[in-house]
Specification:
This protein has one domain. 53% of the residues lie in helices and 13% in strands. The chain has three helices and two strands. It has helices at residues 22-38, 41-52, 59-65; strands at residues 6-9, 15-19. The protein has a two-stranded antiparallel sheet with strand order 1-2.
């Protein structure tokens, strides 16, 4: 993967933007999404419960159980 990041500067030489490969952006964005999803104690608990659940439940049951 090409990880070359390009910096965009203004006429004074100040960096004001970057261009980066989409694969790198997806890695960064994925980490942000995960951090956001785990930032709430209630949501973190739900996600961990789902991760370790041995049986699946229907969408309707999930809505009822978690008051969605």
């Amino acid at each position: 993967m090409n990880n070359s990041v390009q910096y965009i500067t203004d006429t004074n030489g100040s960096v004001n933007a970057v261009i980066l490969p989409i694969a790198l952006w997806k890695q960064i964005n994925c980490k942000d999404e995960t951090e956001y999803l785990l930032s709430s104690k209630k949501n973190k608990s739900r996600l961990l419960e789902a991760l370790y659940r041995e049986e699946s439940i229907s969408k309707e049951e999930a809505y009822g159980r978690f008051e969605l």
